[in-house]
Structures are given as C-alpha cells and as structure tokens.
Design brief:
Helix content is 68%, strand content 0%. By secondary structure, the chain is mainly α.
Length: 164
C-alpha cells in the first residue's frame, strides 16, 4: 500500500508526520543584549505560533525536558556569582537538544526548532552577564507558555480526532 511518500522508514512515511511547511517555517532570532521585556514576549509569542503551526512533531515531553533543564540551571545558579558555571550548564543543554531533535519521529521537521534553541543558548553564552541570563530564562518561559496557550502538539491531536 503506497501513501505517496518515498523512503523506507515507515515513521517518516506516515502522512501525519509529514509536514512540507517545515522547510519554510522560520523562528525569529532574538538578541538578549538589547531587547526589552516587551520585545522578548512578542518574539516568544510569534515563535510559539510558528512552532505550533510548523513543528508539530515536537512532543510535549520534549518541551518539558527542555523547560525542566532550564529551571534546574536557574535553581543551581541562583546567585549568578559563578558565571562560568552558568555558561557551562547552558552549553551542556546543547547536546540534549540535539539528541531530542534526533529522537523525533521526523528529525528533519524538528531540526529548525531545536537549532533555534541552540542558537538562543549561544546568544546567551556570548558576552554572558546576569541580565542576559535572566532574559533567556524569561524568553524560554514565555515561548513554552505561548506554545501551550496556542495548543501545541495537543491541538494537532484534537484536530485529528475531529477528522475521524
């Protein structure tokens, strides 16, 4: 039985996992050095909408792992006196994100989103200071909050149920 998709991996051939729009979805970069709280929140909302619409192969479990890791870093480094420790913890998030992208049902579909998170970490680590770190935390919280607000992966599942 052919479903119109080429390739040998059945996970990648599933029409529900196929999203041609991922190639065209972009997430807006943010520079924490010069951004205001209003810009951070607006960028997070815009990116969450793009994330929800274009990157629906990202699971809520992956989102939770990222969010939990950020909160752990925040708790471990509350005083922010040891900036090298904070930077090191942030850098260690990058392989975790790469792993999460690789584990996805359609890694090509999730790669742009996880690359965006890695770029955001790089932006935070470059010329690191406590203000940039705080903005990074707030941006991540806003991004995930808006993702849940707009339905994220759950909205897609509800849509599929309505179709059946």
């Amino acid at each position: 039985m052919s479903n119109g998709y080429k390739g040998n991996n059945p996970r990648h051939n599933n029409p529900r996992n196929f999203n041609n729009n991922n190639q065209h979805q972009t997430l807006e970069k943010i520079d924490f050095s010069n951004s205001t709280p209003d810009e951070i929140v607006k960028t997070a909302e815009k990116n969450a909408k793009n994330w929800k619409n274009g990157f629906r192969d990202i699971t809520i479990t992956q989102v939770r792992k990222y969010f939990n890791a950020i909160k752990q870093i925040e708790l471990k480094t509350k005083d922010l006196k040891d900036t090298d420790k904070v930077k090191t913890e942030l850098i260690y998030l990058k392989p975790m994100l790469a792993y999460q992208s690789g584990r996805a049902k359609n890694p090509r579909a999730t790669e742009p989103f996880f690359k965006h998170l890695i770029d955001t970490i790089d932006n935070t680590v470059e010329n690191f200071n406590s203000e940039k770190f705080t903005k990074f935390i707030k941006y991540s919280e806003a991004l995930i909050s808006y993702y849940k607000f707009y339905g994220g992966k759950d909205a897609w599942k509800k849509y599929l149920i309505k179709l059946n």
